[in-house]
Amino acid sequence: MFETLSDRFDGIFRRLRNQSRLTEADVDEVLREIRVALLEADVNVGVVRTLQGRIRERCVGTDLDGPLTSAQVVIKAVNDELTEALGGETMRITFASKPPTVVLMAGLQGAGKTTTSAKLAKWFRTQGRNPMLVGADLQRPAAVEQLRTLGAQINVPVFSEATDPVSVARAALDEARRTGRDVLICDTAGRLAIDVDMMEQVRQISEVLQPDYTFLVVDAMTGQDAVTVAESFHATLELDGVILTKLDGDARGGAALSVKEVVGRPIAFASTGETLDDFEQFHPDRLAGRILGMGDMLTLIEKAEQAYESDEAEAAAQRLMEGTFTLDDFLDQMQAIKKMGKLSSVIGMLPGIPKEVRDVEIGDKEIGRVEAIIRSMTPAERIEPDLIDTSRRHRIALGSGTQPTDVQALVGQFSQMRKMMQQMGGGTIKKMKKKQSKKKGKGGGRTTPKGSAPLNKAPYMLPGLDPLAEQLAKAGIELPELGQRGL
Amino acid sequence: MLLVVLLVSIAVVVVGLVGFVVVTRGSNRREALEPVAISTLDRPSATTTPIDVAVEPSEAIDQTGDLIDDVELPEMATSRVEEAVDERPRLRDRLGKARSAFSGAFASIRGRSKIDESVWDELEEALLRADVGIGPTTELLDAVRVRVMADNIDSTDELLEVVKMEMLRRLDGPVSMPLTANRPNIWLFVGVNGVGKTTTIGKLGRRLTDEGHSIVMAAGDTFRAAAAEQLGEWADRCGAAFVRGAEGGDPSSVIFDGIAHGAAIGADVVLCDTAGRLHTKSNLMEELSKVRRVADKGAGTVTEVLLVLDATTGQNGLVQARQFTEAVELTGVVLTKLDGSAKGGIVFAIASELKIPVKLVGVGETAADLVDFDAHEFVDALFARD
Question: What ipTM describes this predicted complex?
Fold first, then answer.
């Protein structure tokens, strides 16, 4: 959708190839591109200006002799600057010594306060707390009803009365003390920052509740106005943090950066989906990459870690490198990817995937079709797809409810893929074989469908993988870090 | 290092899958779609979800009345409604905040004696701050530059006049939503979460009933908790018939039933709510396309498919509009929450790039605060001298 920053830089940096140092003029040219990228991500105009200044300082005079290309140097500088601006660390939530710990939610209409209140309650539950929800949104029709429904889903009591928001808040505090609830989350009506009466009302609620945390709920899709909104809420309520919602869309969330920059309060949580589980503490580094239009590698790695069992992955990876990857392995990999979430979102997180691939949408149905085809093959066919002739193809098509041409397409695609892998892993294989030949005489040939056991578990460099390593570096991910995270 | 290998394998599998899909898509896409279309034909009989049709508005009051009466903030909300009912506010009156922010920049430009680089910079910044977006802003200002050169314009007053003209040209589009003879007219409301779809339907229902039309509201948002109750209350307020389904039910069937009910009672307009959905969720967008197909099959005609857009939305608004129009062919945009400090400049991009006109603007919380979009007033208000 958006050009990535590195795409933008290509033209500029081609000229810079022979230079050893970035001059002020070069940096200014680059900064113009960065400005466009940041504005497209909805970072506030004023904030963009101050960021540009800081990035300039960082870049001018940077040495280009190192191992990184000039584009990488600049992108890294920009990425570091943004991460810093977003707040270095994840916010820590502490609890009041005298319960309940009171949390007040505020924000514009439609930012997602009610849903987020419930998500937050659920999060507190997983922290071993006993939260209570308070419905002080008496403005929007059925808002309390919505909160009650959500409360019932997560087994958290909801308190509200048909009085006025301030009295509800007061009564709720007593109720929480009486019933021994140690966290109180107060949902309030959405209000415009310029609505004087409504802002006064929320100030009174805040005065009654004396909240330990006041969160401003901000929609990730918000544009330039985010700054105005955050400033006026901060002036009225003394915010403690921001909760960013609807990050599961494709908005790049520059609003978060603007808000952080203007009110100086961290982004505490991020809401990443419609179900009540889709809620997590906020990781600044990930959003930085997103604002710049780079892949979200860390999230991908985290998801991969959850989805893959390490032994399995190790073995599959090994076979992949050897070029003895079978359709069975393919099937396993597919299952694992499915566990990581929707394929389109996985693709979105991979750096360096060409646009054409990114734009293809693959639904579960289509993955299902591939699965059906592979499952309709005999074990022998799965190991050696070349076996498949016209008659076998017809059988497989019948068995999987597809067309023979589909089967053909899959087999063709698979062989190509295998070839590609062999090329990529070529260098490695040679190296490995050298090492192996001393220990074992076995050079190739497989006896079991799952392939020979992995031989070498020691970490080794994969020169054949340099293209990917480069992509990772481009995305601002340092490989040593990956190694440390380890599987 | 293993992680790298892992990622490579993921990438490879992904690439393999994509390749397969691309290769086979040509033939299968069409086959896959057809059965869907056929299955929707027998939808009403096959999936009749439990619906309670509030034929009499008073019945609906009984159902949801208790709760809502208590919960409402009667003093504030209703008094506002009453005072506002007699006279629909003009867009200009409601754009006070936007006007002052904009005119601040423009006033300072007017004060300049000649058009220099700083004037252009200031103009650019003002447009960017209004969420017009860097692409459309550059394009707009380039067009203005050309005119300024061609016509030898040297006063800032004339410059701003040109800017205004160029903005108007881009916002030009049909605003009216005429009713056709084939009743009921079906108006579908779509958009991402929290933009104000349900509220917009409520306000519009009030306006249409005030104009003497009979309307039905169909609660197609079966996903969000209490969304149907929210719409039900609006239906009560304006005396509209109200059709809902079970929470978690099939939205298409609710809408189909709403349309059927509208046809049965001879309603002029059926206002169909849908659940908020992010345009990136392909399954939900597919669900929405189905809603549209089903609505097309019922009695009457789908005359409006309106994207409800929050004025605070930034550059993502254009992406939303693009995806939604791909799924359901939008006829217009409703810009909500314009009474805040947000300026809704993203509609420039939507109107000029996708040719989807803005039709309605929400400028406040009460039923009367939904006004027709008027490009002249919109731009005029942004340019007005204080």
Answer: 0.73
